[in-house]
Structure formats: C-alpha cells, structure tokens
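Lab notebook: predicted structure, single chain.

Context: the supervisor wants predicted structures on file for every construct in the current expression panel, including those that have not yet been purified. This is the next one on the list. No modifications to the sequence; it matches the entry in the shared construct table.
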Amino acid sequence: MGTNYNIQFSVIIPSFNSADTIAACIESILSQSFQDFEILLIDGLSTDDTLNIAQSFNNPRIRITSEKDSGIYDAMNKGVNQAKGNWLYFLGSDDALFDNTILSQINNIIVADKLVKIIHGDVVTTAGTTERYENYNFWNLVIDRCICHQAIFYHRSLFEGRLYDTRFKMAADWDFNLKVFADRVTSVYVPLVVAKFSTDGVSGNWMQHPEYLAYFADRKKLVSKYKGNSYLPYYYISKVLRKIRSKLF
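Prediction complete. Output recorded below exactly as produced.
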C-alpha cells in the first residue's frame, strides 16, 4: 500500500439495506466543490433497493462491491484494501457530509501541512446535538471517549500493517484510534462540522451494548500493549467515570 496516489480522497461507505438513506449520503459527496475523490460503496448483500439506487447515479466515481461480510468493520477493511486515495474517510450509509465545502476545506489543511496524518472536526447528530472533538488525543480514548469516524480523515499510511480489528464488532474504531494516537501521529483539529451523523439504532444507547462492554473489558490490556503500563492508572479512572455516567444517564 503506497502513499502516492492520484486520487486525494477515498470515501468508504459500508451499507446494508440502506435504500431510505443511501441517495442522500451519495449526493452529499457528489455535490462537493472539491471533486478529487472516489466513492467506495461496500455493501453486505442488501435485499432492498440500495444497490439499484447507487447504480442509478451512473457515476464513474462510484465503485460498488456487494458481498457477504462479518460486520461493519469487515466492510470498512475491504474499503481500505480497495481504496486508491491518499486520504481515507468513512461515512455511514445513513449519514451525510454537512455541506458541499467539506472536502475543499480538508484539502486546504492537507496542502498547508505536509506532515499531518489525521484531520478531524465535529459532527451534528440526528438527535440535534453537536459532538465536538477539540483537543482530542490519546487521553480521551483511555479515559472514556472515542471520536466517531464520521468526523475524522486518515492518511492512508496509517493503515499500512494494520486494519480494524473485527473482533470488536462495534468498537473497532476505538481500538484503531487507540493505536494511532498512541503513536503520536500529527493530528489537526478544525472547528468544522464535517458530517450529519445518524444516532438511530444501537448508537443511541452505546454505553450499554454488549459489544461495547466487551471492548471495555479488553481495554486494560490494549492500553498496556499500545502505550505501556504507565498509562494504566487512567484506565482505572475510566472505569470509575463509566460507572458514574451509567448511573446518570
């Protein structure tokens, strides 16, 4: 996986039975003022009109794969392996880029800072709240907060030798971000709402979902593995904070 590709952005969309939302998702990308991108729709054998709708755009920027997968992170890994862009961005099939200037604004940062490997902003949720990720770093992941993948752009070099760990069915992005932020990669926060992020379904009650709890159970070992035992006190702080949060919410 090299680092000099002709396409600037690969936008990867995992999908399954997304007929109600996939058109708006794709349109939010195709309408961007910055047009140096590809769209990789990685579908898990949808049985509704998802594929027909995506194909109806008849746009060469859209590449569609539809085959059985083992979950969203398996689909995202397939997208990574197919991507031809210098930068990778993951958008849910029920999400959308916030406006048509997003890729242009992110590209301006890339041009200005050749060392940056992660660029992240904020998201607006369908619940009407804004999720802000200013001053985001490894400490947030250790204590209790992950940046959602709709808010973050990754340089493709971050995926060299590592992909999403599909053992974590709903929290592989936590694990991946823990790895890359532990490496102290150069990251830039931009005070920009990147996407409209859907909180329907299990995302709305993520703290209590068994798959997230399974990740939290392994996090002590992961923190020690990626960063060293000196960070373990913050792991224990995170357990206390999670207990307090679960009682409050």
